[in-house]
Structures are given as C-alpha cells and as structure tokens.
Amino acid sequence: MNTTAHPKRSLPMPLWLQGSVELALVALASYLTVVLLLVAVWYTNGFNSSGTLAGAVSVAGHLWLLVHGVPLNMNIPEQGVFSAVTGTMSLVPLGLTLIPLALCYRSGRRLARASYEGQFWQPLAGGLLAYAFVGAGVSLLSTNDFFSTSPVLAALVPLWVAALGIISGGYAESRSLAAMIGVNAADWVKKFSQYSRWAGSYIWALLRAALVSVLAFVAGGALLLVVALFWHWDNVVSLYQTLHAGAVGDLALTLLQLGLLVNLVVYSMAWSSGAGFALGTATSVDLTGTHVGVMPSLPVLGALPHASEPWGYLALAVPLAAGALGGWWFFREGENHFDEWLSLKIRFRWLSWPLSTLGLAVLTLLPTFLLTTLLGWAANGSLGLGRFTAIGPHPLIFGAFSAVLLTAGAMLGLGLAHLLVRDTSGELERFAQAKPTREQKRTARAEAKAQKAAARAERKAEKAGADQPDAAKSDEAAPEAEEVAPENEAEDTASSEAEAEAAPETEAEEPAVPLHPVVKRPKSLRARRQKRLEELAEGTGKE
Fold first, then answer.
1. 411/457 same-domain check
2. 377: CB partners within 8 A, 6+ apart
3. Which residues pair with 75 in a beta bridge?
4. Crossing angle (nearest 10°) for helices 246-259 and 15-43
5. What is the pLDDT of residues 194-212, one digit of tens each?
6. Helices marked H in 346-425 — which ranges?
7. How do residues 442-452 score in pLDDT, each as one tens digit?
8. d(C-alpha 287, C-alpha 514), whole Å
9. Which member of 108, 168, 369, 481 has the lowest number of beta carbons within 10 Å of its beta carbon?
C-alpha cells in the first residue's frame, strides 16, 4: 500500500462567496466606526442621564443606515424640559458616508484582482446581496419605541454606496471594461463609421470636461469653507467654550461635525453660486445676506457669513474659475471635432469659432446641471425637529445657477486657451483650411480632364497592340486560304496596297497613337476568311 503523503490541494473560494464575505466585513467595519462614535457621546452623558449603552448601540445602527441614505423615523415623547419630537430625519451626513464608500472601493480593487476577465459581476452580485441582508438585519435589530426604519428601504437604499464603491474600485484596478464585464469597448467602437467615432469622442471629452469643472467647483467650495472657518475662528472657539462638553465630548462633537463636512462644502458651493441655502424653514443664507434667526450651538455655525458685504460677490469667481479650468482641459484634450467640422462648412473663421463655442456651451449645460443638482439633492434634507425640516440648497435652483456659471467659465477658458496656447496640431490646420476658390476648382477640373484623356489614349494603344498578333496569325494562315480561295488573292493584294498608301496619311493625322494602325478589310472578305479559318481550326473544312 502506497503511504506517500501528497499535499492537499485547496479549492479557490467562489467569486460570489468572496464578494459576500468582503462586503459583510465592510458593513461590519463601518458599523463599528459609528458605534464607537455614539458610545463616546453616551460616555460623556450626551444622551442625558436616562440613556443606556444598549440605547446608544441602537441609535448607532439607525445612524449607520442614515449614513447610507435611509430615512429615520423618530417618535420621542416629552421628557422634562424637552418637548416631544415626531418626524423623519433625512439629512445624510455625507462625511460619514465616505467611510463605507472608501471601504467598498478597497474591496472592489481586491475583487477585481481575484476575478478573471468578464467575471467581475459574480463577486459584485454576491457582495450586494450580502450588503442588503446586513442592512435589513440592522434595521430589524435596531428598531425600538423611539426610532425605526423601514426594513425594505434598509435593504435597498444602502446598495448605491456599495455598488459605487465596488465598481469604481474594480475599474481603477483593471482599467478596462473588458476585464470587468467581458466587453471590449475598442472592438465595439470599431463597428461605427469614422464620423460616428469622431462624434462619440467629442461627446465623451465634453462629459469629462463637465466632470472636471464640477470637481474644480467642489475644490473651490472646500477652499471657501476653510477661509470662512479661519475668518470666524473666534466665534467657533467661543461656541466650543460655551458648551463645556469636556475633552471627550469636544472630540465627539468634532467628529459629528466632520460627518457633516461634505454637506458644508456643498453649502459653500451653493453660496458662491448665488443660489444660497437654508438652515430651516423661512431662512436663507446667500450673497445678499444671512437670515437664520436663533440657531443651535453647533460650533461650525459660527462661520456663517454675516450681513451682506460688497466683497462677497467676488465668490462668483469660484464657479467661473472652475468652469474655465474645464474649458481649458477640453481644449488641451484636442477632441473638438465639432469646431473642425464647422471650419469645413464655414469659410470665415471669425464666424465658425463662435458658433462652435456656442454649441459647446449648450451641450455643457446639461451634464453640469445634472451633476450639481445631484450634489444639491444629496446634501439637502430634514432633521425632523421643529423648523429644521428644510436644510441645504434647493437642488434645482442650485443646479441651474451652477450650470450657467460653469458654462460661462468654460467658454471663457476655451477662449483664453485659443489665445494663449499655440496649436501645433497639423490635423487641426488641415481641417480648418479655407474652401478652394473658383480658379482652383477650374484648374482641378482641367487636370482631371487631361488625366481622363491620357487614360483613354492609353486604352486605345493597348487595344491596338492586342489586335497585332491577330493580324500575324492571319498572315500565317494565308497559304491555306489561298488553296481554298485563290480568286481572293488579287483582292487581298489590292487591299494591302491601299492600306500601305493610307498608312502615312493616318500617321500624319493621328500622331498620338504610337503603335501600328489596325488594318481594315472589306466586311465581306473579312467575314469569309474568318469563317474559313474557324472551319480549318475545327477540322471540318471542305476540300
């Protein structure tokens, strides 16, 4: 009996199971982060003396769902000096949303490395299914008499965070749609015509330019928030001192404000665009002034702008500069095929360039409007407390104001790029050349006619050369034909002499034909000889 030990071969984990494990761990890690934050608040007596650790953990579960966008229903009875609270909290702390999003992004990269080409959908489907089960479980386990969430919404709404993180991480790792879904985009694009590919490249470059503009606008909003915090730093510090929360309480309060950091950046963007934002019903914060009334003692609110100042309108330069950056990027991308097409159709550059820029502006409005409206909608919500039921910018108004300013900035950036950056592309110069004049068209037609005449003469010469061997064969078959038809010999001799006399005249009249002329015989004689030659070739000639 063979007792040799062989190493055990382990089977690889199925991709759907690996995706389920990855996303379950992501959900657990992000949930524990929120639990630690709420436990710190409970430890500093942030939930009043009646709060318990179990209650803090339950609130942490609901906050974890709120981070993913699940509305939280509140029904808190009156307690001492605190009045009853009944409402729905829908304001998502987008800063805390970045935690599960970053973890899902990391898992997406890992799953992309573990997947073969075209199999990325398997861990994606398994992971999303596991994330949905975790969301529904957290909703059921955290529900109590005061806070509740819908299990169906808890299972479905958090999937946008998981899907966005996994797909973006997988694409960042593979850098190819073929590796993710098994479809080669390059082969698919090759099926279209060149004009369709140019149009697709133009639209794709325009969408990326719009994304560049919006990202630059987000960076500008973050810069405005930092400037406001430093400018009103004394108000922020005084609010911290007024609360007397202690070291742990101040830390927990700071972490909660960091959870609202992304929301505050969007509010800064809305303020700089002129659309403004609200911090409750019948409140407004915009370039014309700040009207908010009595606000809670949240330190970051000390950075709100005061009465309207003339220099405040300089904030409009933020979206304009962001749009200019997108327009500059679009010029450097070199995919402005609409401008090239107009250069071919319109001879005057002073007219074609403004029209192409106007077309770019019209096409840029839609993607910038959609992106900024989405940001405004994500940062808008309700606290479900008193008058704090409308917080954030109005999504449509914010999107419209931002789209107009970003588009104007894109036109400005494109114009500056044309003036300041020297174009070294030979292809653009070829496409932008003026239309030919009438004289150039007339010359081109004359050259084409001469080429056709030369080709016609060449074909005639080739035909004459092909008839020459036939004449030689006829001379070889002449002795046989003389035996059959001796009476035609005199006619042949006379015909040959007549052709010899006509040859010089033909050469003088048609000097362009370099080869031997075609010998023409009377139709009747030529027909009889051709018929007889065919009979001799077939062996059926008569004696």
1. no
2. 395
3. 86
4. 140
5. 778 888 888 999 999 999 9
6. 349-379, 395-420
7. 888 888 888 88
8. 90
9. 168
How many Å apart are CA 26 and CA 96, to the nearest integer?
A: 14
Whether 180 and 257 map to the same domain: the answer is no
CB 366, CB 279: distance < 8 Å: no
> How many angstroms separate the CA atoms of 136 and 153, rounded?
8
Same domain as 198, residue 184: no
Percent of the chain with pLDDT over 70: 76
Strands 85-89 and 72-76, sheet pairing:
antiparallel
Note whether residue 505 is domain-resident: no
Query: Which of 145, 163, 189 is the last residue before a domain boundary?
Result: 189
Spatial contact of 477 and 492, defined as CB atoms under 8 Å apart? no
CA distances from 418 to 175, 261, 272, 329, 514 (A): 32, 38, 28, 12, 59
Q: How far apart are CA 311 and CA 220, in angstroms?
A: 17
Are residues 141 and 81 located together in one domain of the fold?
yes
pLDDT band at 499 (very low <50, low <70, confident <90, very high): very low
Tokens found for residue 23: 């996303």
Alpha-carbon distance of 405 to 397, in angstroms, equals 13
Provide the domain limits for residue 143. Answer: 15-189
Number of domains in the chain: 3
**Range name among 49-63, 130-144, 251-265, 474-488 with the lowest pLDDT average:** 474-488
Kindly report the length of the chain. 543
Task: Provide the β-strand partners of residue 86.
Answer: 75
Strand-pairing partners, residue 72, are 89
End-to-end CA distance of the chain: 103
The answer as to whether 2 is a domain residue is: no
Residue 36 is assigned to a structural domain of this protein:
yes
Short-list 460, 463, 446, CA closest to 512: 460
Query: 250 with 359, same domain?
Result: yes
Residue 27 inside a domain? The answer is yes
Q: Verify that 167 and 246 share a domain, yes or no.
A: no
374 with 516, same domain: the answer is: no
The candidate with the shortest Cα–Cα distance to 130, out of 26, 220, 212, 13, is 26
The SS3 call for residue 263 is helix
DSSP states of 196-244: HHHHHHHHHHHHHHHHHHHHHHHHHHHHHHHHHHHHTHHHHHHHHHHH-
